[in-house]
Design a protein that fits this description.
Number of strands: 0
Strand content: under 5%
Number of helices: 5
Structural class: mainly alpha
Distance between the termini: 42 Å
Helix content: 55-70%
Order of helices and strands: HHHHH
Largest sheet: none
Radius of gyration: 16 Å
Length: 147
Amino acid sequence: MASVTLVVLQMLALLAVMWPWQATNWNAWAWIPIATGFVVKGWTIAHNRPGNFSILPEPRANARLITTGPYAHVRHPLYFGLMLFALGCALGWNTLAHWTSAGVLALVLDLKSRREERFLRERFAEYGDYAARTTRLIPRFASRRPS
């Protein structure tokens, strides 16, 4: 039940961040995070195999762990792409309703990713090592110094 609730909240927040509300002016700079979000999501979908995705946090029965491509930079690149899209919509419409909706979406994706990771740790023995070297939602592109 909690998984379905998270998905419903995700969809509602996404719809709210896209809805024009009372906004009258669009900030053209908003297209940068929106386009970047679509690139990240496209790269993720192209890198992953069909059938490996699930809208629910629980992995599919035939799922495999992907740790290359966009997943080498962030464990949840689709969520990152959605957050970039929401940031762009909030920047574009620039209303309190849109900024609030983007914040709610980020919170829901944070909760959803934490739930998903519990399932992934149970399912894939190597997930702990993968999680130790990548960030969860926001990629870290700077090089790491050896300890």
